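Sequence in, structure out. Go.
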Amino acid sequence: MNPDPGAAEADSSLESPGGLEPAQSPDHEIQDLVPTWAPSGKRLISGLLGLNLVLLGSALVAGGAFNPDGLKHQEPQVFMLLLMGVSLVWMLWYLLWARRQPGICPHKDHHAGGVPVTVVLMLFAAFSLLLCVFRAGYLLSVMACKPAPKVLSPFFEAPFLALQTYLLWAHSKDCIHRHKTATRSGLMLVLSADLLLWLNAVTEETVHEEMELERDDGLHPANASQLGGAGVMNSTSCRCSASAACLVFRKGFEVLYPFNMEFYLMAGCMLYVMWKNVGRGVSPAHPPHATQKLTLQVVYRGGVPYGLAAGALVLAVGVVVFILYQVWVGRRRLRHAAFLLFYGYHLAVMPAMALCCVAGVLVHRLERRASEAGRNPTRSLDVTLLVAAALGQLALSYFSVVAAMAVGTGRPLGDLDLAYSLLSLLEILLQNIFIIEGLHRHPSRLAARKERRRSSIFKIKKKTPAPGERTTNKTLLDGNAPAAAAREHDGKNPWTKRAIQEICAFLILSNVMLWVIPAFGVHPQFENGLGKQFFGFSAWFVLVNLGQPLSVFYRMHSVGALMELLIAA
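Output:
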């Protein structure tokens, strides 16, 4: 207990961001107890609602994937249609009525819905809407052999996706303080629908991959008699007819599939931040930093030429490797060369990325910026997603290392696969360290050690500054003038800012290419590798299909985090 009321008020002012909150009356403090304690129970209710929806939907999706003939009434598709319909009703209620109520959103979370994340989300949303068009055309072409809920799914998914995109674009920063129970429950409905649609996309992609593997392993019409007459009829009943429109729709559906999967993961992350921000108190005097636009202008004008040039080279070579792999892997004579091309490219790019991450960590240590304090659901989610999404590739790498220890490498491709696994471990771990340290740096405030050293210098000199100098020094020491601190810092060590920008530019383009390659169907781990030999085809197939979507999402999430580091450098 603090016996001094004045000290208590001083402590409360220090706890607020920047100490800029006005003094509060006792009545206002009593009212603040409501948003402090009430959200916990309501958050529990909405959290349990989302948990049960996701578990029920996952069971239905898994049942439809592993035993499609057992669910005769298309229960998974019907459940997701109902969930999307209810989510649409809630989003319309929020946008057309609740959002217009006075006092519903007294302030915003400026860390949520950053410019890089929003731009990437808009891009994925555009491709996902185009995917809905191709999917609707394909399903209408083969609707004679498709169930009605599956044919209707793109017509429900398109408005659900479009309205959700507008919600996240316009209101992802909202901190809602009215109708909190309904808002949390609605956000959890939309989040559950996103997770189940992503899971359904992963299982459908798994079936597609399995069919491709069976075809490559020699399942041709010549041996189709082994399947029996019923098997032949089932395998050909839902194929595209000779019409060119059906083939175009199916090809567009296959090409645009990865964008849809990434959209639902990114949208789910942004909805989670909105859910955490319901009822949250944030200081209104916490605007985005003015240096962001200046940094983007520097990048656009060629202020980081080396990082952009090196990243563009990685991107151009990666596109060539991707095209050659897709052409060569289907030919028996060039199949081995396709695998060598894939492993060779990654073994050249990932060490360069790892060295850049080490250099970035060293620059962070030399720069010694202060760490951001306070609770921030956006930053916490960024770190959680980086670590969780990295588990996919880390698990595959460790399984490959165990297989190499058990059976040995033996062949050149085995040695390359082992080296690829080890380098993947190293590069992902170092990149996570670099990004996480950068996300927690204060964008303008110097470290406490430098501030103490500066204050000790002032004490030794005992020189009385002019009134203008006194004000400048005081604001720098207190940390209440971010722009002045940033100018002083940049003038003292301009090379640290330039180094971080060069490193981030290179890593952004490299991660984009490492996302494109697996997202569009390059998976040599399915057909070649030590894991398939040691664990068996079925077990390894499941492991790769669980790990690859997480690895793809990790690359895209890394791009968003690196964009924030580049802007705030």
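Check: The chain has a mean pLDDT of 74. The beta strands are 107-108, 174-175, 369-371, 441-446.
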